[in-house]
Design a protein that fits this description.
InterPro entries: DUF554 (IPR007563)
Keywords: Membrane, Transmembrane, Transmembrane helix
Number of helices: 10
Radius of gyration: 18 Å
Protein name: DUF554 domain-containing protein
Strand content: under 5%
Low-confidence stretches: none
Structural class: mainly alpha
Number of domains: 1
């Protein structure tokens, strides 16, 4: 079921928001420890995905050229600026609007949402979205405890956004030959895994990696799989 991971993710946001309503502000040390634990798990998942490939040259080329394209397009900068503009628009407004907008941006604007949804659609693998659900559920607890119930409604755009990607990915599988599809899954999984490694490093605050700049590597992975199939 292509939407299972997305359903779990949206449900985790709702559950986290409801829990947050009954909690006082969580101690910073506890929240940091939980975030570090999640970061380690995200890093391990990303590495396991990246190492599935047997063609590291194609992986390297996809990531390098994808990063060049993303840097040229300034994807990370544009994404951050968009988030700031939206938050400024709602600054000083009701806490409901603030928590809803902040939650939506946080949950949707990331490589994990895209890679996880693609994996769900292409091969029914929801592992990435399950991990994202834990991360989103925890942040929903914090948002809800500090900003109120508005974050619970962020589950709706998350479901629509990730669900659309997952269904589109599943739809593609109906029209592609099985051997080519296997190559596409392998390449997209390995490239997506590297992006998730970057997210894990960011969560651990070990370095600052502009993960969004590498998003063009995903379509390049599809192109490389097609070229390898044809040549």
């Amino acid at each position: 079921m292509a939407l299972l991971g997305t359903l779990v993710n949206a449900g985790a946001i709702v559950a986290g928001a409801l829990i947050g309503l009954f909690l006082s502000k969580m101690r910073e040390q506890i929240s940091d420890t939980i975030m570090q634990a999640i970061g380690i798990v995200v890093l391990v998942i990303g590495l396991s995905m990246a190492l599935e490939t047997d063609n590291f040259v194609a992986l390297l080329l996809s990531v390098v050229f994808g990063g060049i394209i993303g840097s040229w397009l300034k994807l990370e900068e544009r994404l951050n600026n968009f988030g700031k503009r939206v938050e400024q628009k709602f600054e000083g407004k009701r806490p409901f609007a603030t928590s809803f907008v902040s939650g939506t941006l946080l949950y949707c604007a990331g490589a994990m949402a895209i890679v996880g949804a693609i994996n769900s659609g292409l091969q029914g693998d929801h592992q990435v979205l399950y991990t994202k659900a834990l991360l989103d559920g925890f942040t929903a607890v914090i948002f809800s405890a500090t900003l109120g119930i508005g974050v619970i409604f962020a589950a709706v755009p998350v479901f629509l956004y990730q669900g659309s990607i997952a269904l589109a990915a599943e739809w593609i599988t109906w029209f592609i030959a099985e051997d080519l599809l296997d190559q596409i899954i392998l390449h997209v999984t390995s490239v997506g895994g590297l992006l998730i490694v970057g997210l894990g490093i960011n969560l651990l605050r070990a370095a600052t990696i502009r993960v969004a700049d590498f998003l063009p590597a995903l379509p390049l992975a599809v192109v490389s799989a097609f070229l390898m199939h044809v040549l």
